[in-house]
Amino acid sequence: MAESGKPAGLRVGLFVTCLVDLMRPSVGFAAVKLLEDAGCTVEVPLQSCCGQPAFNSGDRQSARAIAEQVIDAFEGYDYIVAPSGSCTGMLKAHYPELFTGDPNWRGRADAFAARCYELVSFLVDVLHVERVTADFPGLVTYHDSCSGLRELDIHAQPRRLLGTVKGLTLTEMKDADVCCGFGGTFCVKYPDISNAIVTKKAKNVAATGAHTLLAGDLGCLMNMAGKIQREGKDIDVRHVAEVLAGMTGEPAIGASASERNQ
Fold first, then answer.
1. Which of 5-14, 18-27, 56-65 has the lowest mean pLDDT?
2. Positive or negative: CA dihedral 75, 78, 84, 90
3. Model pTM score
4. How many alpha carbons lie under 13 Å from residue 122 in its C-beta half-sphere?
5. Helix or strand or coil: residue 65?
6. CA 155, CA 146: separation in Å to the nearest integer?
7. pLDDT band at 259 (very low <50, low <70, confident <90, very high)
């Protein structure tokens, strides 16, 4: 349970994200629990991708068409919250620019963007959640995703709440704020560079001695989990929401088939 100083009753639309929906639904359920524990009414409207792959590839026409669908789907909510700094960065920072010069859409895009928040930032900065009541014994380290850190100024918020998890000890890795090498389509276009970056990241994670790696973006987590698994390192990888919500029953991200079936 999260302890909040914000009055209950806010109606929140949860933007689940493609990766959470397809690869790690437990992150979505953890997000719902955290938001409801903080007094919010949470709904998940019919939704699509945020449009970031198209936007980053230069296809502004497709990105705009997707943005129109998303804005329509989430209009009417007090806030739009996503368990991803990357997707939230797209919604909050880049949607308005897709409608520059359009008097019919720019105002709607601006109003939409103003109500968009990444999950942990929303809990701390808007709802003023001061602590959670989860237990997670062990040593963990935290990776700051590029979009969350640089577009949304998310750094202290997850650390503040992790500091209230019973039994958890956070140890900082070297270069926690350096890219993991995923970068969406970057890892596809430049696989050798991406691999070199994630190799350094995995080395820094292992050097902390932490048993668990946490972050707020599933793309980063899947990329790092894959490298850690291929190198045979005994380190679990989880989304921070799962730990804060006390919902760590699912096997770690990147777990082997035998571990998933246990």
1. 5-14
2. positive
3. 0.93
4. 32
5. helix
6. 11
7. low
User: Which helix (H) or strand (E) element contains residue 117?
Assistant: strand 116-118
Taking residue 62's Cβ as centre, other Cβ atoms within 10 Å add up to 15
Nearest to 241 by CA among 217, 209, 212: 217
Which CATH number is 130-260's, of 3.40.640.10, 3.40.50.11810, 3.30.505.50, 1.10.40.30? Answer: 3.40.50.11810
Taken in order 206, 208, 209, 212, the sign of the CA dihedral is negative
Judge contact between 247 and 221, C-beta under 8 A: no
CB atoms within 10 A of CB 138: 13
Instruction: With cut-offs at 50, 70 and 90, classify the pLDDT of residue 21.
Output: very high
Q: What pLDDT, in 10s, does the model give residues 148-169?
A: 999 999 999 999 999 999 999 9
Q: Report d(CA 146, CA 220) in Å as an integer.
A: 9
Average pLDDT over residues 11-27: 97
How many CA atoms lie within 13 Å of 47's alpha carbon, on the beta-carbon side? 25
Q: Do domains 2-125 and 130-260 have the same CATH topology?
A: yes
CATH of domain 2-125: 3.40.50
Q: Average pLDDT, stretch 227-251?
A: 97
pLDDT, tens digit (0-9, with 9 covering 90-100), for 180-198: 988 877 877 888 998 999 9
